[in-house]
Recover the amino acids of this structure.
């Protein structure tokens, strides 16, 4: 795992649990200065693009509406 380019945190779909902490909270650095610098860098410079987030929210809303039209009362899942 030392050379991994991607971290993946598996969620528990059965319980509906979600990761409610930033991913970098789980990263460990032996040097506390590196730890502080990296976490501040991520906090201050990595951002989601608003246009993409808004477009994704519209897609999710449309899928939920379509699911409700197909009889899914909550509109949470639909396979079309």
């Amino acid at each position: 795992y030392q050379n991994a380019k991607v971290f993946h945190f598996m969620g528990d779909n059965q319980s509906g649990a979600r990761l409610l902490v930033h991913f970098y909270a789980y990263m460990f650095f032996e040097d506390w200065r590196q730890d502080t610098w990296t976490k501040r860098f991520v906090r201050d410079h990595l951002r989601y693009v608003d246009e993409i987030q808004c477009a994704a929210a519209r897609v999710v809303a449309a899928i939920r509406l379509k699911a409700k039209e197909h009889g899914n009362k909550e509109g949470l899942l639909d396979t079309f």
Summary: Helices lie at 32-45, 50-69.
